[in-house]
């Protein structure tokens, strides 16, 4: 059982810095650096996420490179369950299982160590932000291909106008975020 977080989600949202016109004009970049640099803020974020992951019944957490490693590993450690990194290509020293997926302007690939996935394991996705959902959907597909049950995804931030949460829900994955920001 996780302890109650010291800060509310509204208080955590105030710790996220907005950087205008990055990486391109008109984009409002939501920077979690200020949130993770704040000790009580980071601890409360992990506590909120851990409570939600615990309630989902997951027995393992998967985090996408790279900021999903920060939150996913911390949540898994807090709950005493395993963590599985979903990596970029060429980062794992063993034979991998991978999936290619489309980006807005190109393609990318994600890989896992299939030996780290127990058949039927209930794996919750954890990441810092859901935007278009491409990486999260690809991660879920990859984990399912490896034999896992993936029916929950948890994020610190949702950018609902970009439709990623809806894409995950269309794949029968429940989506929960601690906060959302309208716009890009």
UniProtKB/TrEMBL annotation:
It is found in: Cytoplasm. GO terms for biological process: adenine salvage; AMP salvage; purine ribonucleoside salvage. Its EC number is 2.4.2.7. Pfam families: Pribosyltran. It catalyses: AMP + diphosphate = 5-phospho-alpha-D-ribose 1-diphosphate + adenine. The keyword Cytoplasm applies. Residues 36-148 form the Phosphoribosyltransferase domain. It comes from the Bacteria. One of its GO terms (molecular function) is AMP binding. InterPro entries: Ade_phspho_trans (IPR005764), PRTase-like (IPR029057), PRTase_dom (IPR000836), UPRTase/APRTase (IPR050054). One of its GO terms (cellular component) is cytoplasm. Keywords: Cytoplasm, Glycosyltransferase, Purine salvage, Transferase. The keyword ATP-binding does not apply. Pathway: Purine metabolism; AMP biosynthesis via salvage pathway; AMP from adenine: step 1/1. Homodimer. Belongs to the purine/pyrimidine phosphoribosyltransferase family. NCBIfam families: apt, PRK02304.1-3, PRK02304.1-5. Catalyzes a salvage reaction resulting in the formation of AMP, that is energically less costly than de novo synthesis. This is Adenine phosphoribosyltransferase. The gene is apt.
